[in-house]
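hey can u check if this looks right to u? its 362 residues, i copy pasted from the old doc so theres a chance i mangled smth
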Amino acid sequence: MSAMPPGPARPPLPSAGIPHSRPQISPADVRAVARVVRSGLLAQGAEVAAFEREIGGFLGLPPGVAVSSGTAALHLALVGLGIGPGDEVILPSYVCVAPLHAIEHVGATACIADIDPSTYNLDPRDVRRRLTRRTKAIITPHLFGLPADLDPLLALGIPVIEDCAQALGATLDGRPVGSFGSVGVLSFYATKLLATGEGGMLVSRDPRLLSRLRDLRDYDERRRHRPRFNYKLTDMQAALGRSQLGRFPAMLARRRAIAARYGRQFRTLSLGLPPADARRDHAFHRFVVAVPGAAITAARQLESLGVRARRPIFQPLHATLSLPGFPGTRYAHRHALSIPIYPGLQRHEEATVVAAIRSLFA
Protein backbone atom coordinates (compact mmCIF):
# COMPACT_ATOMS: atom_id res chain seq x y z
CA MET A 1 0.00 0.00 0.00
CA SER A 2 1.40 3.41 -0.91
CA ALA A 3 2.20 5.84 1.83
CA MET A 4 -0.18 8.67 2.53
CA PRO A 5 1.11 12.06 1.37
CA PRO A 6 2.34 14.17 4.24
CA GLY A 7 0.04 16.89 5.49
CA PRO A 8 0.98 20.55 5.76
CA ALA A 9 3.76 21.22 8.21
CA ARG A 10 5.62 24.19 9.54
CA PRO A 11 8.73 24.95 7.52
CA PRO A 12 11.83 23.82 9.42
CA LEU A 13 13.94 26.52 11.00
CA PRO A 14 17.35 27.02 9.43
CA SER A 15 20.21 25.57 11.44
CA ALA A 16 21.10 29.00 12.78
CA GLY A 17 17.50 29.62 13.93
CA ILE A 18 15.08 32.30 12.80
CA PRO A 19 17.00 34.61 10.45
CA HIS A 20 17.28 38.30 11.13
CA SER A 21 16.24 39.12 7.54
CA ARG A 22 14.52 37.11 4.84
CA PRO A 23 13.67 38.23 1.26
CA GLN A 24 10.00 37.94 0.34
CA ILE A 25 9.83 36.32 -3.09
CA SER A 26 6.48 35.09 -4.40
CA PRO A 27 5.65 32.83 -7.35
CA ALA A 28 4.38 35.95 -9.15
CA ASP A 29 7.82 37.53 -8.67
CA VAL A 30 9.47 34.49 -10.25
CA ARG A 31 7.07 34.57 -13.19
CA ALA A 32 7.70 38.28 -13.74
CA VAL A 33 11.46 37.80 -13.92
CA ALA A 34 11.13 34.67 -16.06
CA ARG A 35 8.96 36.56 -18.54
CA VAL A 36 11.72 39.13 -19.05
CA VAL A 37 14.41 36.45 -19.31
CA ARG A 38 12.39 34.62 -21.96
CA SER A 39 11.95 37.86 -23.90
CA GLY A 40 15.71 38.25 -24.29
CA LEU A 41 15.42 41.97 -23.47
CA LEU A 42 17.45 41.91 -20.27
CA ALA A 43 19.10 45.33 -19.91
CA GLN A 44 17.53 48.71 -19.14
CA GLY A 45 14.37 49.10 -21.20
CA ALA A 46 10.60 49.22 -20.98
CA GLU A 47 10.41 47.44 -17.61
CA VAL A 48 12.74 50.00 -16.02
CA ALA A 49 10.71 52.89 -17.46
CA ALA A 50 7.49 51.37 -16.13
CA PHE A 51 9.07 50.78 -12.71
CA GLU A 52 10.17 54.43 -12.59
CA ARG A 53 6.64 55.60 -13.39
CA GLU A 54 5.06 53.28 -10.84
CA ILE A 55 7.39 54.21 -7.99
CA GLY A 56 6.87 57.88 -8.81
CA GLY A 57 3.11 57.37 -8.80
CA PHE A 58 3.25 55.50 -5.49
CA LEU A 59 5.00 58.53 -3.94
CA GLY A 60 2.91 61.16 -5.73
CA LEU A 61 5.96 62.28 -7.71
CA PRO A 62 7.12 62.29 -11.34
CA PRO A 63 8.82 59.13 -12.64
CA GLY A 64 12.02 58.43 -10.77
CA VAL A 65 15.49 57.60 -12.08
CA ALA A 66 16.34 53.93 -11.52
CA VAL A 67 19.97 53.07 -10.86
CA SER A 68 22.11 50.08 -9.96
CA SER A 69 22.21 50.61 -6.16
CA GLY A 70 21.26 52.93 -3.35
CA THR A 71 24.90 54.02 -3.11
CA ALA A 72 24.87 54.93 -6.81
CA ALA A 73 21.72 56.95 -6.14
CA LEU A 74 23.42 58.85 -3.30
CA HIS A 75 26.41 59.56 -5.54
CA LEU A 76 24.25 60.83 -8.41
CA ALA A 77 22.20 62.97 -6.00
CA LEU A 78 25.37 64.80 -4.95
CA VAL A 79 26.64 65.13 -8.52
CA GLY A 80 23.24 66.36 -9.70
CA LEU A 81 23.20 69.03 -7.00
CA GLY A 82 26.63 70.24 -8.14
CA ILE A 83 28.46 69.25 -4.97
CA GLY A 84 32.20 68.69 -5.20
CA PRO A 85 35.62 69.63 -3.80
CA GLY A 86 35.51 72.42 -1.22
CA ASP A 87 31.91 71.67 -0.26
CA GLU A 88 30.73 70.12 3.01
CA VAL A 89 27.88 67.64 3.41
CA ILE A 90 26.35 66.94 6.82
CA LEU A 91 25.28 63.37 7.59
CA PRO A 92 24.72 61.34 10.76
CA SER A 93 27.34 59.17 12.39
CA TYR A 94 24.77 56.44 13.03
CA VAL A 95 24.31 55.16 9.48
CA CYS A 96 25.91 52.63 7.16
CA VAL A 97 29.01 53.73 5.28
CA ALA A 98 27.27 54.26 1.89
CA PRO A 99 26.61 58.02 2.29
CA LEU A 100 30.22 58.57 3.35
CA HIS A 101 31.45 56.76 0.22
CA ALA A 102 29.17 58.91 -1.95
CA ILE A 103 30.49 62.14 -0.41
CA GLU A 104 34.08 61.02 -0.87
CA HIS A 105 33.40 60.00 -4.49
CA VAL A 106 32.51 63.62 -5.38
CA GLY A 107 35.51 65.02 -3.47
CA ALA A 108 33.43 66.83 -0.84
CA THR A 109 34.05 66.81 2.91
CA ALA A 110 31.83 64.76 5.20
CA CYS A 111 30.71 66.63 8.31
CA ILE A 112 29.51 64.05 10.83
CA ALA A 113 26.64 64.95 13.18
CA ASP A 114 25.09 63.20 16.17
CA ILE A 115 21.66 61.58 16.41
CA ASP A 116 18.74 61.70 18.80
CA PRO A 117 19.05 58.27 20.48
CA SER A 118 15.29 58.11 21.05
CA THR A 119 14.63 58.07 17.27
CA TYR A 120 18.06 57.12 15.83
CA ASN A 121 17.67 59.98 13.34
CA LEU A 122 19.73 63.14 12.86
CA ASP A 123 19.59 65.60 15.75
CA PRO A 124 18.65 68.95 14.10
CA ARG A 125 20.26 70.88 16.97
CA ASP A 126 23.61 69.24 16.31
CA VAL A 127 23.20 69.87 12.58
CA ARG A 128 22.79 73.59 13.24
CA ARG A 129 25.96 73.63 15.34
CA ARG A 130 27.93 72.12 12.46
CA LEU A 131 26.76 74.46 9.69
CA THR A 132 29.42 76.50 7.90
CA ARG A 133 29.51 78.66 4.79
CA ARG A 134 30.71 75.58 2.91
CA THR A 135 27.73 73.39 3.86
CA LYS A 136 26.00 72.54 0.59
CA ALA A 137 23.74 69.61 1.51
CA ILE A 138 22.36 67.53 4.38
CA ILE A 139 21.83 63.78 4.01
CA THR A 140 19.15 62.65 6.43
CA PRO A 141 18.25 58.96 6.59
CA HIS A 142 14.81 57.92 7.79
CA LEU A 143 16.53 55.24 9.79
CA PHE A 144 14.91 51.82 10.21
CA GLY A 145 11.74 53.21 8.56
CA LEU A 146 10.96 56.04 11.03
CA PRO A 147 10.61 59.46 9.32
CA ALA A 148 13.20 61.98 10.45
CA ASP A 149 12.34 65.39 11.90
CA LEU A 150 12.45 67.25 8.58
CA ASP A 151 10.93 70.64 9.40
CA PRO A 152 13.96 72.12 11.21
CA LEU A 153 16.32 70.74 8.55
CA LEU A 154 14.31 72.13 5.63
CA ALA A 155 14.10 75.49 7.44
CA LEU A 156 17.89 75.85 7.14
CA GLY A 157 17.55 76.56 3.41
CA ILE A 158 20.17 73.97 2.44
CA PRO A 159 19.39 71.15 0.01
CA VAL A 160 18.18 68.08 1.90
CA ILE A 161 18.81 64.63 0.48
CA GLU A 162 16.31 62.21 2.00
CA ASP A 163 17.86 58.76 2.36
CA CYS A 164 14.76 56.57 2.15
CA ALA A 165 16.68 53.31 1.73
CA GLN A 166 14.83 51.88 4.75
CA ALA A 167 11.64 53.90 4.59
CA LEU A 168 9.72 53.40 1.34
CA GLY A 169 6.05 53.73 2.30
CA ALA A 170 6.66 55.69 5.51
CA THR A 171 4.85 59.00 5.83
CA LEU A 172 5.29 62.23 7.75
CA ASP A 173 2.10 64.20 8.38
CA GLY A 174 0.41 62.00 5.80
CA ARG A 175 2.96 62.73 3.07
CA PRO A 176 5.41 60.10 1.76
CA VAL A 177 9.03 60.44 2.76
CA GLY A 178 11.16 61.20 -0.26
CA SER A 179 8.79 63.98 -1.34
CA PHE A 180 10.04 66.70 1.03
CA GLY A 181 13.69 67.36 0.19
CA SER A 182 15.51 68.36 -2.96
CA VAL A 183 15.90 64.69 -3.85
CA GLY A 184 15.05 61.33 -2.30
CA VAL A 185 17.12 58.18 -2.54
CA LEU A 186 15.67 54.65 -2.50
CA SER A 187 17.37 51.27 -2.18
CA PHE A 188 16.07 47.94 -3.43
CA TYR A 189 18.73 45.69 -1.91
CA ALA A 190 17.74 42.06 -1.31
CA THR A 191 16.47 42.55 2.24
CA LYS A 192 15.02 46.04 1.90
CA LEU A 193 11.30 46.79 2.11
CA LEU A 194 10.99 46.26 -1.65
CA ALA A 195 13.73 44.16 -3.23
CA THR A 196 15.26 43.80 -6.69
CA GLY A 197 18.45 42.09 -5.45
CA GLU A 198 20.50 45.24 -5.97
CA GLY A 199 19.17 48.55 -7.23
CA GLY A 200 18.01 51.99 -6.26
CA MET A 201 16.15 55.05 -7.48
CA LEU A 202 16.21 58.83 -7.21
CA VAL A 203 12.96 60.77 -6.85
CA SER A 204 12.25 64.50 -6.85
CA ARG A 205 9.66 67.14 -7.62
CA ASP A 206 12.25 69.05 -9.68
CA PRO A 207 11.99 68.04 -13.38
CA ARG A 208 15.29 69.71 -14.29
CA LEU A 209 17.14 67.83 -11.57
CA LEU A 210 15.56 64.55 -12.70
CA SER A 211 16.65 65.28 -16.27
CA ARG A 212 20.24 65.85 -15.12
CA LEU A 213 20.20 62.66 -13.09
CA ARG A 214 18.83 60.65 -16.00
CA ASP A 215 21.57 62.02 -18.25
CA LEU A 216 24.27 61.15 -15.69
CA ARG A 217 23.08 57.55 -15.27
CA ASP A 218 24.03 56.34 -18.78
CA TYR A 219 27.37 57.16 -20.39
CA ASP A 220 26.81 56.08 -24.01
CA GLU A 221 25.40 57.61 -27.22
CA ARG A 222 25.64 61.27 -26.29
CA ARG A 223 26.64 63.95 -28.79
CA ARG A 224 28.08 66.23 -26.13
CA HIS A 225 30.62 64.73 -23.78
CA ARG A 226 30.61 65.13 -20.02
CA PRO A 227 31.62 62.69 -17.25
CA ARG A 228 28.78 60.18 -16.85
CA PHE A 229 28.31 56.79 -15.24
CA ASN A 230 27.09 53.29 -15.98
CA TYR A 231 24.53 53.10 -13.19
CA LYS A 232 21.67 51.44 -15.07
CA LEU A 233 19.15 49.02 -13.58
CA THR A 234 18.20 45.95 -15.64
CA ASP A 235 14.74 45.01 -16.86
CA MET A 236 15.06 41.73 -14.92
CA GLN A 237 15.46 43.68 -11.67
CA ALA A 238 12.73 46.14 -12.60
CA ALA A 239 10.30 43.29 -13.32
CA LEU A 240 10.93 41.92 -9.83
CA GLY A 241 10.44 45.38 -8.33
CA ARG A 242 7.19 45.96 -10.24
CA SER A 243 5.84 42.60 -9.10
CA GLN A 244 6.69 43.38 -5.49
CA LEU A 245 5.22 46.88 -5.75
CA GLY A 246 1.87 45.34 -6.65
CA ARG A 247 1.62 43.77 -3.20
CA PHE A 248 3.73 46.31 -1.36
CA PRO A 249 0.86 47.81 0.70
CA ALA A 250 0.09 44.33 2.03
CA MET A 251 3.78 43.74 2.81
CA LEU A 252 3.93 47.04 4.71
CA ALA A 253 0.73 46.20 6.58
CA ARG A 254 2.24 42.86 7.60
CA ARG A 255 5.34 44.56 9.01
CA ARG A 256 3.22 47.05 10.93
CA ALA A 257 0.99 44.31 12.33
CA ILE A 258 4.02 42.39 13.62
CA ALA A 259 5.42 45.62 15.09
CA ALA A 260 2.12 46.31 16.87
CA ARG A 261 2.10 42.84 18.40
CA TYR A 262 5.73 43.19 19.46
CA GLY A 263 4.88 46.51 21.08
CA ARG A 264 2.05 44.99 23.10
CA GLN A 265 4.17 42.03 24.19
CA PHE A 266 7.22 44.10 25.13
CA ARG A 267 5.68 47.18 26.75
CA THR A 268 6.22 45.88 30.30
CA LEU A 269 9.82 44.80 29.68
CA SER A 270 13.03 46.68 30.41
CA LEU A 271 13.40 47.73 26.76
CA GLY A 272 13.31 50.98 24.85
CA LEU A 273 10.70 50.55 22.10
CA PRO A 274 10.32 52.37 18.77
CA PRO A 275 8.67 55.74 19.40
CA ALA A 276 4.94 56.08 18.76
CA ASP A 277 4.21 59.38 17.05
CA ALA A 278 0.93 60.25 15.34
CA ARG A 279 2.82 62.40 12.80
CA ARG A 280 5.13 59.59 11.68
CA ASP A 281 3.90 56.39 10.05
CA HIS A 282 6.78 53.97 10.58
CA ALA A 283 7.60 51.50 7.77
CA PHE A 284 9.41 49.09 10.16
CA HIS A 285 12.21 48.00 7.90
CA ARG A 286 13.76 47.15 11.27
CA PHE A 287 12.24 46.70 14.72
CA VAL A 288 14.94 48.15 16.95
CA VAL A 289 14.82 48.00 20.74
CA ALA A 290 17.22 49.55 23.24
CA VAL A 291 18.41 46.84 25.63
CA PRO A 292 19.65 47.70 29.13
CA GLY A 293 23.06 46.09 28.61
CA ALA A 294 25.27 45.59 25.59
CA ALA A 295 23.36 44.79 22.41
CA ILE A 296 26.09 42.50 21.18
CA THR A 297 25.71 40.37 24.32
CA ALA A 298 21.94 40.24 23.91
CA ALA A 299 22.37 39.15 20.28
CA ARG A 300 24.52 36.22 21.36
CA GLN A 301 21.98 35.22 24.02
CA LEU A 302 19.12 35.36 21.52
CA GLU A 303 21.05 33.26 19.03
CA SER A 304 21.41 30.55 21.68
CA LEU A 305 17.60 30.61 21.86
CA GLY A 306 17.19 30.21 18.09
CA VAL A 307 16.67 33.87 17.16
CA ARG A 308 19.09 35.85 15.03
CA ALA A 309 19.36 39.51 16.09
CA ARG A 310 22.05 42.07 15.44
CA ARG A 311 23.29 45.55 16.08
CA PRO A 312 21.63 47.41 13.19
CA ILE A 313 24.65 49.60 12.33
CA PHE A 314 27.97 47.80 11.95
CA GLN A 315 30.13 50.75 13.04
CA PRO A 316 29.26 54.44 13.45
CA LEU A 317 31.02 56.81 11.09
CA HIS A 318 32.66 58.79 13.88
CA ALA A 319 34.37 55.58 14.98
CA THR A 320 35.41 54.81 11.40
CA LEU A 321 36.94 58.30 11.15
CA SER A 322 38.35 58.27 14.73
CA LEU A 323 36.35 61.33 15.82
CA PRO A 324 35.59 62.04 19.50
CA GLY A 325 32.21 62.89 20.98
CA PHE A 326 28.80 61.85 19.58
CA PRO A 327 27.14 60.69 22.82
CA GLY A 328 23.79 59.90 21.18
CA THR A 329 25.43 57.70 18.59
CA ARG A 330 27.62 55.97 21.16
CA TYR A 331 24.56 55.15 23.25
CA ALA A 332 22.71 53.77 20.23
CA HIS A 333 25.63 51.65 19.10
CA ARG A 334 25.97 50.09 22.54
CA HIS A 335 22.28 49.45 23.24
CA ALA A 336 20.31 49.23 19.95
CA LEU A 337 19.31 45.72 18.89
CA SER A 338 17.39 44.76 15.75
CA ILE A 339 15.12 41.72 15.94
CA PRO A 340 13.38 39.82 13.10
CA ILE A 341 10.54 41.63 11.34
CA TYR A 342 9.61 40.92 7.73
CA PRO A 343 6.48 39.88 5.83
CA GLY A 344 7.54 36.23 5.65
CA LEU A 345 7.93 35.90 9.42
CA GLN A 346 5.46 33.19 10.40
CA ARG A 347 3.31 33.42 13.53
CA HIS A 348 5.07 30.50 15.20
CA GLU A 349 8.42 32.19 14.46
CA GLU A 350 7.09 35.46 15.84
CA ALA A 351 6.03 33.61 19.00
CA THR A 352 9.55 32.21 19.32
CA VAL A 353 11.01 35.72 19.02
CA VAL A 354 8.62 37.05 21.66
CA ALA A 355 9.34 34.19 24.06
CA ALA A 356 13.09 34.64 23.66
CA ILE A 357 12.92 38.40 24.25
CA ARG A 358 10.65 37.98 27.27
CA SER A 359 12.94 35.36 28.78
CA LEU A 360 15.87 37.79 28.68
CA PHE A 361 14.25 41.10 29.60
CA ALA A 362 11.21 40.37 31.79
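The chain has two domains: 27-246, 248-361.
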